[in-house]
Design goal:
Blueprint: E1 5-11, H1 17-30, E2 34-38, H2 41-47, H3 57-84, E3 89-94, H4 106-115, H5 120-124, E4 129-133, H6 158-174, E5 181-184, H7 190-205, E6 209-210, E7 216-221, E8 229-238, E9 244-253, E10 258-267, E11 272-280, H8 282-288, E12 299-308, E13 311-320, E14 326-331, E15 345-350, H9 359-362
Parallel strand pairs: 1-3, 1-4, 2-3, 4-5
Antiparallel strand pairs: 6-11, 7-14, 7-15, 8-9, 8-12, 9-10, 10-11, 12-13, 13-14
Helix pairs in contact: 3-4
Length: 366
């Protein structure tokens, strides 16, 4: 099996992918990696004369089919190049195959997959990580522009911003179920957004990272949530060596998708830790449960993930071993930034860095 990692860089319109790709190549080249980049295939076809706004339905269909076939071929070709390289290498895809599904009807997408002899599950498993950069249209409207993409039809006006936000959510939803989907927030300082991208790729490559705490809050839900991705999480801690935390998680999304992930977190110094993740089959998941830590109960909780004003949040409602706890966790909000707290939540208290609210300790049997 190839050790070369394949990473998708995706997101809504005007999310900063082009600039991020330049920074990725520069940063990891300096670390001794060869970075191969797969170009954005839909843009290639748009610049070549095809348009997804064409009224010719047959032309539209043939264009989408060509895009999927080209995407698969290009990715596989670049993977072979990376596997042949004599230095450490990885592949970054400027959008991936599942992005295509966000722009077409579900029935057509299903037909395209069948014609290419593939499925959503197969396509999702092609990638080691998916980094979704939130569109500037959501929370960073002052930076939204069409100047960097002449084929973009989501113009910089109120209607264009609404369309861009909607596309951003559709693209994010298309990747639901991937075990290493990371949403990269907008920030007042764009460099902060880029540093988060570099950090997530470093994690995938197994490069130790500084220990950082995501901000956590005990909250009460007081109103209706916006459109969110809902899932059920079962989390079991396994017996591990001192200084090492091993977690087995099964996550089931509303819609039938189930993914099992084995994660190891090891502190290698006072300021750095190394995280590794791998997806495991249902059979291996059941087998690994035999190694469950007898001193810790299985955690069961419902999660609702959503973007609010350009920031990504996860809202967890616990069912076991506690049933009166709701925690809001920020994702990728820089230390110096303010949190855009949603109005439908009442903040009871901040618990960032409080060991009592770590999942590892919540699971501890009393």
């Amino acid at each position: 099996m190839s050790n070369v990692k394949r990473i998708v860089l995706t997101g809504g319109p005007c999310a900063g992918k082009t600039t991020a790709l330049v920074r990725i190549i520069e940063h990891f080249s300096n670390l001794g990696f060869k970075v191969f980049t797969v170009p954005e295939v839909p843009t290639m076809y748009s610049q070549g004369g095809w348009s997804y706004l064409t009224p010719n339905r047959n032309l539209y269909y043939e264009g989408e089919l060509a895009i999927l076939r080209t995407q698969l071929t290009l990715e596989d070709s670049f993977m072979r190049l990376a596997e042949t390289c004599t230095k450490p290498a990885f592949v970054v895809c400027d959008r991936g195959t599942l992005d295509i599904s966000a722009y077409i009807a579900p029935e057509m997408w299903q037909e395209l997959c069948e014609k290419c002899d593939t499925s959503v599950s197969d396509l999702r498993s092609r990638y080691d990580a998916v980094l979704h950069l939130v569109s500037a249209a959501d929370g960073a409207e002052q930076y939204y522009t069409t100047a960097t993409n002449s084929t973009r039809y989501e113009q910089a006006n109120e209607e264009g911003l609404r369309i861009a936000r909607d596309l951003d959510k559709k693209v994010n939803k298309a990747w639901t179920g991937h075990p290493h989907l990371r949403v990269i927030n907008n920030h007042d300082d764009f460099d902060t957004k880029l540093r988060r991208v570099l950090k997530e790729i470093s994690n995938v490559l197994g490069i130790p990272q500084p220990i950082e705490e995501e901000r956590k809050y005990v909250v009460e839900v007081t109103g209706e949530l916006p459109e969110s991705v809902e899932s059920e999480i079962t989390q079991t801690y396994l017996v591990a060596d001192p200084g090492c935390e091993v977690r087995l998680r099964r996550r089931a999304w509303h819609g039938g998708e189930v993914v099992n992930v084995h994660k190891t977190k090891k502190r290698i110094s006072a300021t750095e830790e190394l995280e590794t993740e791998r997806q495991v089959s249902n059979a291996l998941y059941e087998s690994l449960l035999q190694q469950a830590d007898p001193y810790r109960a299985t955690i069961r909780k419902s999660r609702r993930s959503f973007i609010w004003k350009g920031q990504y949040f996860e809202l967890d409602t616990y069912h076991n071993p506690v049933d009166d706890l709701v925690i809001l966790e920020t994702k990728g909000i820089a230390e110096q930034e303010s949190v855009n707290f949603p109005p439908f939540l009442r903040i009871i208290k901040e618990v960032t860095g409080n060991p009592q609210y770590y999942n590892y300790n919540i699971a501890l049997r009393k």
